[in-house]
């Protein structure tokens, strides 16, 4: 593989633009083309990042010889088509989490990539979070002893499902945020979920015209004995100083670790209109350069391709993630414990 990899980006929404920005700045990547169903958005991304080629049909992007790899940043329920097409075209791909929103689709994507022999990765960027990496180090060093219980909360204000996207009713906070929680827990503990029990409600968002669950609360039992509670909500008040709320606690036989990745108060801003905790970890820009752990995972994928290495967070992790999320969804619908 050449030292510089030619990339295309499929989907130029909020996170797709982040991929564009990273590839346009990274020395081991070259942004060749962008694609979006909305021609105005595709053209705007191409202009902003000085890309000659833009499309509304990802098949045309995949037909370009200069494109060796793609980022798939379409809505989570629309990953299967571009991912399988990319694999069949011999293009490596980085796909935003979750890999898919059904286990059947996740397995189909993984099988297409396996048959094509291409390199693929799911963008579980919390694995690059400084807080999560410090937590993993503490666990591996035995500082917590055996992790007995865990609590993981990742929620958004209602601005995200109501104002950010037009497709919120086609997904849920479980797929949008719970995918991060489940993957991060399994990665931190190097374990698999064996049993889940979950509850969910639909009321607030439905009243706002978005027919999707307000929240999920799930209890997960892992194979090595850890019991974890995962909470995801899309109905936090829009007056919150941070658009997301991220708290985590792990209690072990020898110690405890707690993380506040959203309200850490490293910087606080107060004006006549709002109180805010500006982002300094996820995707901040410093002197025009895209930094943060959400960018680090994208850079890592480009580096792996340039060096001919297999990345972590492969599609097998993506399939396992979807398997657990489907079980949580099933438990919430039936009111029963689901054993995986």
Provide a quick synopsis of the model.
The protein is α/β, with parallel strands linked by helices. It contains eleven helices and 17 strands.
Q: Could you characterize what this model shows?
A:
It is a single chain. By secondary structure, this protein is an alpha/beta fold. The chain is built from eleven helices and 17 strands. It has helices spanning 14-25, 39-48, 58-62, 80-88, 103-116, 130-140, 159-164, 173-189, 204-207, 293-307, 315-334, and strands at residues 5-10, 29-35, 53-55, 69-72, 92-96, 120-123, 147-156, 193-201, 215-222, 227-233, 244-252, 256-260, 269-270, 275-276, 285-286, 289-290, 338-339. The strands form four sheets. It has a seven-stranded mixed beta sheet with strand order 12-11-7-10-9-8-17. α4 runs parallel beside α5 and α8 packs across α11 (315-334). It is globular, with a radius of gyration of 20 Å. The mean pLDDT is 97.
How far do the termini sit from each other?
A: 39 Å
* Low-confidence region ranges: none
The radius of gyration over CA amounts to 20 Å
Order the strands across the largest sheet as they lie in space.
Answer: 12-11-7-10-9-8-17
**What sort of overall outline do the alpha carbons produce when their principal axes are compared?**
globular
Largest sheet entry: 7 strands, mixed
Q: Notable features of this structure?
A:
globular, alpha/beta, 6-stranded parallel β-sheet, 340 residues, 7-stranded mixed β-sheet
Topology:
Layout: E1 5-10, H1 14-25, E2 29-35, H2 39-48, E3 53-55, H3 58-62, E4 69-72, H4 80-88, E5 92-96, H5 103-116, E6 120-123, H6 130-140, E7 147-156, H7 159-164, H8 173-189, E8 193-201, H9 204-207, E9 215-222, E10 227-233, E11 244-252, E12 256-260, E13 269-270, E14 275-276, E15 285-286, E16 289-290, H10 293-307, H11 315-334, E17 338-339
Parallel strand pairs: 1-2, 1-4, 2-3, 4-5, 5-6, 7-10
Antiparallel strand pairs: 7-11, 8-9, 8-17, 9-10, 11-12, 13-14, 15-16
Helix pairs in contact: 1-10, 4-5, 5-11, 6-8, 8-11
């Amino acid at each position: 593989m050449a030292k510089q990899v030619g990339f295309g980006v499929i989907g130029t929404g909020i996170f797709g633009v982040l991929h564009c920005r990273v590839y346009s700045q990274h020395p081991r990547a070259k942004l060749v083309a962008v694609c979006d169903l909305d021609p105005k958005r595709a053209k705007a991304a191409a202009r902003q990042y000085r890309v000659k080629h833009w499309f509304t049909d990802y098949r045309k992007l995949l037909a370009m010889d200069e494109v060796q790899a793609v980022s798939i940043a379409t809505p989570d329920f629309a990953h299967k088509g571009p991912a399988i097409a990319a694999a069949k075209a011999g293009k490596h791909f980085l796909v935003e989490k979750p890999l898919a929103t059904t286990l059947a689709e996740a397995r189909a994507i993984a099988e297409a990539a396996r048959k094509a022999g291409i390199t693929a990765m799911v963008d579980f960027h919390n694995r690059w979070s400084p807080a999560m990496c410090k937590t993993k180090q503490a666990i591996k060093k035995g500082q917590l002893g055996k992790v007995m219980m865990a609590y993981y909360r990742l929620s958004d204000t209602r601005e995200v499902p109501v104002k950010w996207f037009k497709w919120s009713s086609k997904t849920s906070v479980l797929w949008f945020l719970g995918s991060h929680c489940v993957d991060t827990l399994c990665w931190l503990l190097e374990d698999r979920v064996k049993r889940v029990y979950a509850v969910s409600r639909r009321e607030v968002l439905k009243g706002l015209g978005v027919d999707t669950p307000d929240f999920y609360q799930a209890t997960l039992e892992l194979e090595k004995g850890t019991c974890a509670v995962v909470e995801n909500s899309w109905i936090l008040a829009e007056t919150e100083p941070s658009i997301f709320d991220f708290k985590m606690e792990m209690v072990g036989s020898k110690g405890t670790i707690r993380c506040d990745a959203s309200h850490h108060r490293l910087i606080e801003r107060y004006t006549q209109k709002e109180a805010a905790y500006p982002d300094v970890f996820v995707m901040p820009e410093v002197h025009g350069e895209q930094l943060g752990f959400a960018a680090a995972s994208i850079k890592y994928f480009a580096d792996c391709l340039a060096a001919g290495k297999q990345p972590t967070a492969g599609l097998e992790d993506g399939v396992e993630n979807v398997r657990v999320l489907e079980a949580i969804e099933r438990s919430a619908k039936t009111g029963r414990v689901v054993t995986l």
